[in-house]
Amino acid sequence: MKIIFATGNENKLREIRQITADMDIEVVSMKDAGVYTEVDETGTTFEENAYLKASAIAKKCGLPTLADDSGLEIDYLGKQPGIHSSRFMGEDTPYPEKNAEILRRLEGVPDDERTARFVCAICYVRPDGSKEVVKATMEGTIAYEAAGVNGFGYDPIFFLPDRGCTSAQLPPEEKNRISHRGKALRMMKDILEKEYASGQGQS
Hints:
Layout: E1 2-5, H1 10-19, E2 26-29, H2 46-61, E3 65-74, E4 80-81, H3 95-105, E5 115-125, E6 131-142, E7 158-160, E8 165-166, H4 172-178, H5 180-197
Parallel strand pairs: 1-2, 1-3
Antiparallel strand pairs: 3-4, 3-5, 5-6, 6-7, 7-8
Helix pairs in contact: 4-5
């Protein structure tokens, strides 16, 4: 069974392949499938944007398609950058610069006001247009300085109090187990396993 994962982010693609490795499903990127469509993320929620991406690619290629929309919500900043996380300060701005700007905006803010969460919504769209959507979060706080090299994006500034480190300091297997994307992918994996086991999935 082949499913397209509508992303150009190799880190995300690697994570979903790790989590679905024990399933008889081949997860391919848009590039591997020869699809180069850019989808405007005009939704107002993570769920809407995930659906926009998945539905556009599924319609174009005629294959089951997964897409995610994820981001960082910081309570002190009114849950920003939120759905604009990848576009915060411009899509081409390196994440070390984005992280430095967030740390600057929270300079002097105490621990109890630095609460934040990673959010991930994943949408699965079948060739007939029907869909399944799941969402998960990982709660934490914003660190006082960036640390760690194992993650990507905002991971170096996302602190996990119960583990005493940032998500970028976690081993990849541990991060996949507790992360917003890992949780959402396992929720979606349950849906896919039931669907493909019953013979409803389409290749």
